Amino acid sequence: MSFQTILSFFSFSSSIAFCDAPEAWQLGIQDPATPVMEGMLFFHNYLFFFLIVIGVFVCWLLFFVILNFNEKSNPVAQKFTHSSSLEIAWTILPAVVLLLIAVPSFALLYSLDELIDPAVTLKVIGHQWYWSYEYADSSALFSKLDDVVLDFDSYMVPTTDLVKGSFRLLEVDNRVVLPINTHIRVLVTAADVLHSWAVPSFGIKLDACPGRLSQTSLFIKREGVFYGQCSEICGVNHGFMPIVVRGVSFDRYASWYFKSIEDIISSLSTKEESHLIELLKKN
Known about the structure:
Strand order of the largest sheet: 3-2-1-5-8
Oligomer: single chain
């Protein structure tokens, strides 16, 4: 084994493998791919500090009381009824802790509702038991022809059809393609029952309700393939509604987008096709 091979085991600068799908016996959180998820991960670690301090203090206090206040070590019980200084301390200290938790919590909460002018709009529709996706920008671009909409259905790939390297119960036949470093608006609804569009690496878990259009924002910071699942019990095949989003550069997204539009155009009549080609050239 060469020195370079040995060194590669201890060097992480050349290549980094992100965790964007669940792993066996996983206890931690998947690697964040959006600023929102980074904020959630920071708040999780920040909150854990207070949990550890409070847990250690309570365990020490219980051990101290059991050890020092029993009939053998302290046969004569104290007869005091209250302590003003102690009551002030156990009132002020929890209030300070709650204040330290509330400030970053509200900042993160309000950042979830922030929606900057989006460049891409993705509409997600939940069905029993698959997802439908519609790129709303295409319907706006081709508003003169209502039949031309860039949309597709996404079904789970059966285990028998999986290729080597695919994830069982997580791979789909049609992946969602979205650009990175771009503000994206996601609209979520359902056609039949309650669903939930959830991708852990994005920090998104948005309920899909029939007759209601929910909205959230998305800003993907890096390229990759991100996996999620329906997170609302929606029937017998609830566990077979995976979500796969592929984040690519904006140039690759534009190429994929217009290639998909051209495929739609090729399936239309000659008159409609010529009109659409003119619209494509203008845009």
